[in-house]
Amino acid sequence: MALWAGTLEQVEQTARMCQDRGVVARAWRVDVGEWEQVKGWADEVLREFGRVDVLVNNAGIFLDKPLLETGVDEWERVLRVNLSGQFYCIKAFVPHMLGRGGHVINISSTSGKKPYERQGAYCASKYGVLGLTKVLALELREAGVHVSAICPGGVDTELVRGKLDRPDWLEPEDIAEVVAFLLKLPPRAAVDEVIIRRFTSTPY
């Protein structure tokens, strides 16, 4: 299992957890908003593991700011990590799935389903992830590659911790359960997107 994040210490801890469970895992520090870093990392992963079966695009950054107060550099950084970063990973890894199948799971957000004030850049990036996912599903159908999006709402991660605190938020493990569910489906089944929200929030 190849794991990556913007901070090596965090992803190394996850790698150790996997190793404790008997899973071969290695951690990398990668800025997915930089194509050359993604490409170089993908080359390393393929040399070490030889193949890729599943790609989960989960990297993201959050910006809590009114749209008209959002700086151009802030806007570009959010779009580069949250949207372009997924495209970069897809471009680097998915060609190695062609001809034998695989899974691509893109993490969007409920912010990709409806607008929220002070989340203009974030919403734009997550709406974009859904469009990217649907196009990719069409283009990879004949190659047998399954493409899905997960839209979580209110997950207690460092992305928003201390900014949008609520006592009833989902845990990261809840999203991991959805990923596992998608991977266990038979090849004849396809799921376009999954919305998973706080039980106390309004249904979509």
Question: Biggest sheet, open or closed, and with what strands and sense?
Answer: 4 strands, parallel
The total tally of domains equals 1
Portion in beta strands: 5-15%
Helix percentage range: 40-55%
Strand order of the largest sheet: 3-4-5-6
User: What number is the mean pLDDT?
Assistant: 94
Number of strands: 6
Kindly, what is the distance between the CA atoms of the first and last residues, rounded to a whole number of angstroms?
Answer: 34 Å
**What class do helices, strands and sheet pairing give?**
alpha/beta
CATH class: Alpha Beta
CATH topology: Rossmann fold
Instruction: Give the C-alpha Rg.
Output: 17 Å
Low-confidence stretches: none
State the CATH architecture. 3-Layer(aba) Sandwich
Q: Indicate the overall shape.
A: globular
